[in-house]
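Note to self: keep these together.
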Amino acid sequence: MVRRLATALLVLPLVALLVLVSDTAQPPLVGPGPDAPTAAVAMGDSTMSGEGAGTYEPGTDGENGNWCHRSLKASIHRVKLPVPVDKVFNLACSGANAEQVGLTDQVRNTEGSQARQLGKIAREYRVTTVVVAVGANDDPRFADVLNTCLQAWFQRRTDCSKALTEDWRGRVERMVPKVQKALLDIRRVLREAGYTPRSYALVLQSYAAPVTPDLPFDLQNLAGCPLRTGDLRWVRDTAVGELSSALRRAASAAGARFLDLSKAGLKHEACSGGKNPDTEWFTRLTVDFEGLRDEARARHALQESFHPNARGHEQFARCLGEFLGTSARSASCVVNGEGTLSPVPDQD
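Structure:
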């Protein structure tokens, strides 16, 4: 009797321990579950939405005030993911800043928080990949920089970069915590939807220089790229590189992977092809003359200028797809010997 009681006393804790282990050892459900359809999601601003690539999704080309300009030729629709997904979502919107990508009540182009939109998707689809491009529309105001440089060319005054250089680094630095917060907001909505950090890939990509000082003189005007040579050089050699370095830090702080595009457009910038624009991966000065006839569209008539075109998005997609197929935390897209983009892993 004593022996049986002793045995029971030993067995009962062991049974309790096994029950406890079996309950806690089960992996948490990832999003909607393993049988849900899979998805990849793009978030961010115009360089991710597909501004400049044309063929915009219905409802994003000015209809009812929505100028997100989401292109069916955007890189997210062309990337070859290591594991194909059932559906691709492009939430990126031209003009978006980091606040609009993250959790916010702010509305732009008739649309609200991209992170909240992601949260809804993540509960119906098993999101495997999130690619983000954002930051240029925050404190750096990169589009305004180009507009200022355009005005400098028109007015025949000194290079705009001389004035911009004084405050550029400060503006870039002020951007970093905003982008970091947007990335953490993305992580938050996915965590609340049941995802673990390792169950999906989160990539922040930077910006490619859209212009170059190495262009034919007869295109340094309204026929192509009306910017002063010093400004073209500053954008390519300084501004874009410093912006990319800051975004790298934001990605690292949020635990995201980073894809550096700062040198991705080398020798394929707007106007670099001279009489053969088919070699270029960026739009030249682009004017929507039809839009100028419509008061509501007139102020968007130059919106596509100096953005990646369909060829550029195809190349960015090629590099992104290869990068996602590696274990590298960061890499730089560079033109390889075949004239296409490939990721070169950064040395840690």
